[in-house]
Request: fold
Amino acid sequence: MRKRQIAALILALLFLFGLLAEAADAAAPAEANFPPKDSRYHNYPEMVAEIMAAQAAYPDLVSVFSIGKSYLGRDIWVAKVSDHVTTDEAEPEVLIDALHHAREHLTTEQALYLLKVLTTGYATDSLVKRLVDSREIFIVFALNPDGMQYDLTGSPYRAWRKNRQPNVGTGTVGTDLNRNYAYDWGCCRGSSGSPGSLTYRGRRPFSAPETQALRDFVQSRVIDGRQQIVMHITLHTNGELVLWPYGHTKTDIPADMTRTDHAAFVALGKRMAQRNGYKPEQSSDLYITDGDQIDWMYGRYRIFSFTWELYPTEHHRTSDFYPADERIAAAVANNRSALLYAIDKADCPYSPIYQAKADCGPLYDDFEIDRGWTRDPDGTDTATDGLWQIGDPTATSILGPKQLGTTTSGRAALVTGLAGVKGTDANDVDGGTTTIRSAPVLLPDPVGDLTFSYYFSHRSNATSADWFRVWVEAQDGTRTLVREELGKATDDDARWIPVRVSMKPWAGQKVRIVIGAADGAGDSRIEAAVDDLRIERP
Reply:
């Protein structure tokens, strides 16, 4: 009997020690190394050491910080590179990230190479200096550090792709981080719902701590309602490709992408590819993906987001993920010109399609997303229905079109009473005034014109007490009326009208745009909309 008790105690202790060992592994995971034949690659500790060394050597240019923790508790390190690196300046921002997929180690080398170019070249290369002085550049070196290290525990590699988060109740481990983003997640057979699959998309969007960290960082760059990150490249291997959105559909220009943006994507992608010899194409031309990063970056924030599939060209064999370390230097240096070009174009991604004046001024809002508008900013609106909304309008017709189902670009606009008619006069402006105000805009001096398209429609019982108005609001709150249309006793159908207003009186100032509509005469059918609002470059 005593022997059985001792044996049971030993088994219990072994089980307890096993639990403690698992907890210790999760808290402080062991770090594996590359095999000697590939020693030029950086494992996680070596990567961190190089990043920290750059910060120590160039403290005025480099600031290193963590955007969060991996599942096993490793920091996801980011280096910000800029001339006033501790100051959040009003400069175009660029995000470069690497290693979504564990076995794609060359991407980390590419990110480290870029950090070296931007720091060691600052004093001697005029282009590098200009870019660092006029941009804020963020580099994520390994979004998937747990998978990165786990991949090195094979013989010599495991060809691991996913993160190391267990899939509860399945006995499987890992989520494909590049199928875990929230834009059209799981929509289109471009990912797997099976936890054991290489492309498992996770239980829900952003179920992985690593994608949560990236999401929260990108969200933190929304200042005054506007995303500061203009250009983004996510580094993958392999195939030597430059890919632009969308990945979830074969349609070149779906409803949620403007023709202007598509043209800019194609032009930017082709010019990047001219510089590194890669093949440019839409992401879905390679294969369908859903829940991937570049679709989310563009679809949610209108960031010009690209996937680069790095060296080598072949992408059919496992060995293609592990090019010999003698190839690292040439492979990453090949992308120097293309990377600097992408950083340069963050100032105006529309310049390759000759749209700099119209689309690269201090304000460009196509209303495909909400860029910081505030409804009823004064707290004095009285309208009970038909309030300003941003979205995809439904066409309505009462003796002719009153709310248009079309926009001047894309699928969305700023509209009163976005939904369709719920009765003869429902969802139009009723009961008084509705207003909406933009986020603040700092104007240069000199400054270009304010341009937008609008319509104001009503039935024949309207009067001059019904109106559409646009004001420019100065920093002291003073408002100047720059466009007005009053109601009149005729049936007025909706049609888009272009407007141009000089902004010279406000040059060098911080302003807001205020838009209003009113049903002041009674129960007339009042509809209004605005689209493609810009303050142009001079």
Summary: The chain has two domains: 24-360, 364-535. The domain at 364-535 is CATH 2.60.120.200 (Jelly Rolls). The two ends are 93 Å apart (CA to CA). The first strand starts at residue 62 and ends at 69.
